[in-house]
Design a protein that fits this description.
Length: 66
């Protein structure tokens, strides 16, 4: 993926399916503009040490309650 290469990231570290699934769920359950913001917040949380799968599951659950 070109974006990974540009940022010096290993493609194996990019959980693209996880992020896209989260964005889809938020876009459909909340509002479309919330999808990229939520993906960004997931990235912040993971960057601070959160488990990506756990954080995404929590955000998906939150979007279902909206």
């Amino acid at each position: 993926m070109a974006a990974c290469a540009e940022l010096g990231l290993d493609e194996g570290d990019a959980a693209t399916t996880l992020v896209l699934d989260l964005a889809r769920d938020v876009a459909h359950n909340v509002v479309r503009p919330a999808a990229p913001v939520t993906a960004y917040l997931l990235g912040l949380a993971v960057g601070r040490g959160a488990d990506a799968a756990d954080a995404a599951a929590r955000l998906t659950a939150l979007s279902s309650r909206s």
